Amino acid sequence: MGRLTTHVLDTAHGKPGQGIQVRLYRIKDQQRQLLCERLTNADGRCDQPLLEGDALISGTYELDFDVGRYFAAMGAQLTEPAFLNIVTLRFGVADASQHYHVPLVTTPWSYSTYRGS
How far apart are CA 27 and CA 8, in angstroms? Predict the structure, then answer.
């Protein structure tokens, strides 16, 4: 059974990104369709998969991470406007029977991602 999961690592503070709002969209006909919204837990993960089973289909998706609000709440010295506010990751799901784990590694000034396990 396929599933889609995520987590956030705050490398500026050396800890998981807790309380970050995550929104998942499916891209269809160049339009974003909101599928779900979650908050990351104390481990920087969502308590349940973003999608699983028949809900995960092949196609293009976007994850929005509200890192601007998170880093402001952490007391980070941010410019106005913040350099990073909403980080959007666009990725493809080719085989919906697999596990797609899409983490965000971030600071107030940078981010990276990879397909995790």
Answer: 22
Residue-wise pLDDT for 78-93, tens only, equals 999 999 999 999 999 9
pLDDT digits (tens, 9 = 90+) for 50-62: 999 999 999 999 9
Enumerate the β-bridge partners of residue 45.
Answer: 7
Beta-strand pair 8-10/104-106: parallel
Q: Is 16 exposed, middle or buried (0-12, 13-18, 19+ CB in 10 A)?
A: middle
| Pair 52, 3: CB distance under 8 Å | yes
State pTM to two decimals: 0.96
